[in-house]
Design brief:
By secondary structure, this protein is of the alpha/beta class. It contains seven helices and six strands; from the N terminus they run βαβαβαβαβαβαα. It has a six-stranded parallel beta sheet, sandwiched between helices.
Amino acid sequence: MAYTAIFGGTFNPPHIGHYEMLSELNGIGEIGEIWITPTRIPPHKVCDFLADDSDRIEMCRRLSEDFNKARLCLEEFERPGKSYTYDTVTLLKQKYPDRDFAFVCGGDMITTFEQWHKYGEIMHMLPFFFFFWVDVEDSLFDKKIAEFREKGMRVTVLDKKISAVSSTFIRNNIDRAGGLLPEKIYDYIIAGGIYNAGK
């Protein structure tokens, strides 16, 4: 059975790094579906500005339209409290016992994964697909991957190197950040005045 890949994130906003990851995942034969799973309440981030839930959901929906394997998963909007990955994975595995889930991680998460809620349990719950981000030091990335594998995590490191994009920079410079966003996402942000676009 092909994997259902859980692609989580704040998506505040979805940017070209996310788009590149989705494009790569969409072409992997052992992945049958990609569930874009926006976080309702980020548990580990202090954000300068979090777009409205409805806007982040709509941006993710529009992002999913470009990939035949992608669909929107709103599991984290269907329960109260912070959006912990452990809880999301646990509930999805309970709701869909016939699916084989995998989790997608960008290389920017490599240094913070051990700060995740119940990370030691998460790493044994399902396999992981890791992307290398171009601003992450190669030796650090390789070291952390080796450590995770030694602890029993099932890890696949994908060849595609993902553009390093700062969501904070985009939010603070939205009127000149068009090149860092998929066109349809940029157009939506400008039209809706999100992140003070056009002001």
